[in-house]
Amino acid sequence: MPEAADQRTGREPFGSRLAAAMANRGPLCVGIDPHPGLLADWGLNDDVAGLERFSLTVVEAVASLAAAVKPQVALYERHGSAGMAVLERTLAAASDAGVLSIADAKRGDIGSTMAAYADAWLRDGSALAADSVTLSPYLGFESLRPALELAAEYGRGVFVLALTSNPEGKSVQHVGGSESVAKRIVEAAAVENGRYAGALGSVGLVVGATIGSALEDLGLDLNAVNGPLLAPGLGAQGATAADLRSTFGAAYPAVLATSSRGILAAGPDLAGLRAATAETRDGLLAS
Ligand SMILES: O=c1ccn([C@@H]2O[C@H](COP(=O)(O)O)[C@@H](O)[C@H]2O)c(=O)[nH]1
């Protein structure tokens, strides 16, 4: 239970910490996606030194302007163990700078293996522990149980894929129509957040900013989730702040919009990154 987590770790539940960060800094998460092309644009090599410079520059630039940062794990993994060590240092830098982290790892497996993923991303003492991690429910929502429990125990959070921002997601997530796969995930998250009653829950969902009328088409009520809604697709994938507002409607206050390439293109200059972050955040607040 969250109260026990507070006693054990001194850490408030993730949902409460994220709600406070969004209230103070606005509803924006900046993705840290060190793509080879972006490293080149920043005058950096596609190697471990370039990766580290890129990542730490983003944290330094945006920590005071964004509610969270979201390193894309795949782009560290492609550099092998040294790349994962950079990810560890990036997560530590985010923590030191006081900005919440979302490790975009999209993990999911049978329960016994899931317990190991949970240890890696959510347990105190793990070098990869982040404030929250993205999870894939393709093996069934309940297979994520070890991560749900560990997150609650340590005041950390999860974001479960529900309606992803890519067009191919529909071929799985919309199956079932009014009783869609996505609806099962939304309902399961709502049940899970019952343990956080009275505060924003720590079990979030990933719902793309690009999904158009899917919520209406599938009859999904995101208000009932009582958890944060991580919305990728802003910027490089074409969604705007106005799209977010119209797509999410009454659930918009729970939306944490995330943009990577749309902001990172303004680097490596710190002032440029800050201006792009502030402009994106202000657009979300004004929409
Ligand atoms: O449905 C999803 C889930 C995750 N992502 C991730 O978010 C960023 C988006 O990057 P942009 O440059 O802002 O397009 C990336 O890391 C994706 O893996 C997503 O786009 N959609």
Automatic annotation (TrEMBL):
EC number: 4.1.1.23
Annotated catalytic residues: 106
Catalysed reactions, as listed in the record: orotidine 5'-phosphate + H(+) = UMP + CO2
Enzyme class: lyase
Molecular function as annotated in GO: orotidine-5'-phosphate decarboxylase activity
Keywords from the named record: Decarboxylase, Lyase, Pyrimidine biosynthesis
Residue ranges of domain Orotidine 5'-phosphate decarboxylase in the record: 27-276
Pathway named in the protein's UniProt entry: Pyrimidine metabolism; UMP biosynthesis via de novo pathway; UMP from orotate: step 2/2
One annotated GO biological process: 'de novo' UMP biosynthetic process
CDD domains for the chain: OMP_decarboxylase_like
Keyword Lyase: yes
Stored InterPro entries: Aldolase_TIM, OMPdecase_type-2, OMPdeCOase_dom, RibuloseP-bd_barrel
Family that this chain belongs to: Belongs to the OMP decarboxylase family. Type 2 subfamily.
Designated name of the protein: Orotidine 5'-phosphate decarboxylase
Organism of origin: Arthrobacter cupressi
Lineage start: Bacteria, Bacillati, Actinomycetota, Actinomycetes, Micrococcales
Gene: pyrF
